[in-house]
Amino acid sequence: DTEVTQTPKHLVMGMTNKKSLKCEQHMGHRAMYWYKQKAKKPPELMFVYSYEKLSINESVPSRFSPECPNSSLLNLHLHALQPEDSALYLCASSLTQGNQPQHFGDGTRLSIL
Amino acid sequence: GENVEQHPSTLSVQEGDSAVIKCTYSDSASNYFPWYKQELGKRPQLIIDIRSNVGEKKDQRIAVTLNKTAKHFSLHITETQPEDSAVYFCAASIESGYSTLTFGKGTMLLVSP
Fold first, then answer.
1. Residues A7, A12, A18, A19, Cα dihedral to 10°
2. Considering A68, A111, B78, B112, which has the largest number of Cβ atoms within 10 A of its Cβ?
């Protein structure tokens, strides 16, 4: 099983809503990542979890709140988002943090009304 | 921090031709260099990677070369096919348990039949 699964695939929400993105992997990877990607741009790192602990927060606004309940799951809680937060949100995992191959999920296409 | 420059931003070739995409990096401590292919609306997929103890790596029609002295690495695709059309991202990371990937800005490859 070499997949990273993300749900939902698409999400439309208003600026006052609260929603969550979910990511799951069963490859035994101990590092998981959230990226934001705008059209025709590279993925932009948001958060890294290593062994279920937050390792890196790239100065992301507090309206994005990550959570790693266990080694297979990664959530991103969303609250009071802005229109500029509309993007593709990608989850990735790697065996460990560091210079290891990262495997990406298909992403959640998020639209903020 | 690390900076990765990628050229060209767009590359158009005829089917059967070769394509070369080049990246330069700034941090001499970088030692892991993956390449990702992202088709429209899909996830970034790792297609090949190289570590700094190797100068070249091949996988069928794809090869990557690394010049540590000049701090640049290149992706070579031979006998291009229309299904090679995608955006290609290079990346670099250093040897550290806390490192992350630094991506180039991407190259849109268009292969015409």
1. 0
2. A68
Measured between CA atoms, the residue of chain A closest to residue B43 is: A106
User: What value, to the nearest 5°, has the Cα angle with vertex B107 and ends B105 and B45?
Assistant: 85
Inspect the interface and report whether the beta carbons of A90 and B101 lie closer than 8 Å.
no
A46 CB contacts (<8 Å, ≥6 apart)?
A33, A34, A35, A36, A57, A58, A60, A64, A66, A76
Q: Given this model, what pLDDT does residue A2 score? A: 60
Q: Tens digit of pLDDT for each residue in B76-94?
A: 999 999 999 999 999 999 8
Q: Say whether B105 and A90 touch across the interface (CB within 8 A).
A: no
Amino acid at B19: A
User: Which residues are bridge partners to B25 per DSSP?
Assistant: B4
Tokens encoding B64: 């990557």
For chain A, strand residue ranges (E) read: 4-7, 10-13, 18-25, 31-37, 44-50, 53-57, 64-70, 73-79, 87-94, 103-104, 108-112
